[in-house]
Amino acid sequence: MVPFWILGVGIWGSACVSGSEKVQDSVSETLVDEDSGGLEQDTASSEEDSGTVEEMDTAETEVDSPVNLLNNESFEEGEYGWNIWGGAARVAEEAQDGSWALKATEGNGAEQRVEGLEPNTIYRLSGWAKTEENAITIGVKDYGGEEQRVSFLSSEYTEQSLTFRTGFGSTSAIIYAYKHTGSDVAYADNLSLVYDSESPYVPVWSDEFDGDGAIDTSKWDFEEGFVRNQELQWYQSENAFQEDGYLVIEGREEQRPNPNYEPGSTSWKTSRETIEYTSSSLRTRGLFSWQYGRLVVRAKVTNHTGTWPAIWTLGIDCQWPSNGEVDVMENYGGDILANFAWGTNQDWSPNWDSSRLSVESLDPDWSNRFHIWELEWDADRMVIYLDGNELNSVSLSTTINGSSACAGQNPFQQPHYLLLNLALGGAGGSVDSLSFPTRYLVDYVRIYQEEEN
Q: What are phi and psi of 256, to 5 degrees?
């Protein structure tokens, strides 16, 4: 588990990748001369040493330039580091720096994947380019945010730059120089990717689930009983605990009387005479809620038929769905879902904005690894990411409640609280072939907001 407070630390030097679960801070120590406290010196000694002091002061004020994280930034070392494709080529002419440049025409260019970036950190991309007529672009993509680029239209070399913030689950980015249209020739050279600054997003709440034992009830409470969707499980706190630094939510097969059973009841919650399955649903309702920022959860889901794990939020005011629901992650039916829901003109009938990603479309080992889900939320937009890749987004200009409840209000412009749960049955499917106990693991939950908030 990576301590949440180190995310966003800038690296002056080469980017690096950690291969371990636990990351240790490296601390720079400044050594102070124990004898420097003396204030009186004889004049001769001071004059004699003055030249040395000036030299030391000058040396101390020198600041190293940030290291360029790109390989072969000026195309001087062949195609090393770059994927040059579609008819683009290195040419020994028209260079801005050195002897070589990238020549691009219509629909081609070069790209380079940079690994080992720091999550939640701002980087600066800059480069030089020129074109005969149609634009050539230098940009960045696949870094945990929207693609960004700058366009060049001048016939003389000019330099432009942009900054981008890596996602909380992103440690890589693709840097490119592309020319999308026009058969005329364009050139790019001397690209640079450097650390710029720390992110403005700072941690405001987290649970790292370190250690073993009970859940921290100052952060979480628990849903109890048969709760929703005619699911099979009885929710209880006993099925959630910390083990080896993870939150474990365990689905179990049990047999015991339903304390809320009512003979002859037509309600699915009270007509069941027996509790056959149990699980847990944790929530921060009444303990913590937030409006705008970044939610980051590292979790492992099994994709088993019969299970329905989720990471989701609900607004603190109004009835469902007019209070707003964000399904940062649901896993059932072989899919990963990312959904937004809000109110309509009919009670209990939501507007859904949904997306599905088939687990089969991912690599075969996907369900055996932990993954990072993020919710990016501001006053205008919400975006859900999985491992730095966008799953779904919605403009808050479209999420206005209908007339059934809280009419005309936007449920995503109010505080929300968080839920983590493992449901059984329901949309998750039959549990007949499911082996019990079954587990849903969460490594950490972290919430960030901009400092001015």
A: -160, 160
Q: Pick the catalytic residue: 73, 208, 325, 376?
A: 325
Domain that holds residue 111: 83-199
Listed in order, strand segments (DSSP E) in 16-157 are 83-85, 89-91, 101-104, 108-115, 121-131, 136-141, 148-152
Q: Does residue 105 surpass a pLDDT of 70?
A: yes
Number of Cβ within 10 Å of residue 73's Cβ equals 21
**Considering its fold, how many domains does the chain have in total?**
2
Cβ pair 254, 388 in contact under 8 A? no
- E strands, 143-245, are 148-152, 158-165, 172-179, 186-198, 201-207, 221-222, 233-235, 240-243
- What tokens appear for 79 in the block? 């195609």
Terminal Cα-to-Cα distance of the chain (whole angstroms): 27
Q: Are residues 182 and 237 in the same domain?
A: no
188 and 232 in a single domain? The answer is no
Inform me whether the pLDDT recorded for 16 exceeds 50: no
pLDDT in tens, 245-285: 999 999 999 999 999 999 999 999 999 999 999 999 999 99
pLDDT digits (tens, 9 = 90+) for 389-447: 999 999 999 999 999 999 999 999 999 999 999 999 999 999 999 999 999 999 999 99
Q: Are residues 217 and 161 in the same domain?
A: no
User: Catalytic site residue 325?
Assistant: yes
CB of 148 closer than 8 Å to CB of 138: no
Helices first, then strands: H and E counts in the chain: 1, 27
Q: Are 154 and 37 in contact (CB under 8 A)?
A: no
Q: Of 126, 112, 103, 113, give the one whose Cα is nearest residue 179.
A: 103
Number of Cβ within 10 Å of residue 338's Cβ equals: 25
Structure confidence at residue 2 (pLDDT): 41
Q: Are residues 162 and 276 in the same domain?
A: no
Structural domain includes residue 78:
no
Give me 17's structure tokens: 């990748």
Cβ contact 373:337 at 8 Å? no
Helix/strand/coil for 367? helix
Out of 330, 374, 451, 452, pick the active-site residue. Answer: 330
Same domain, 316 and 363: yes
CATH number (domain holding residue 162): 2.60.120.260
Determine whether 360 is an active site residue: no
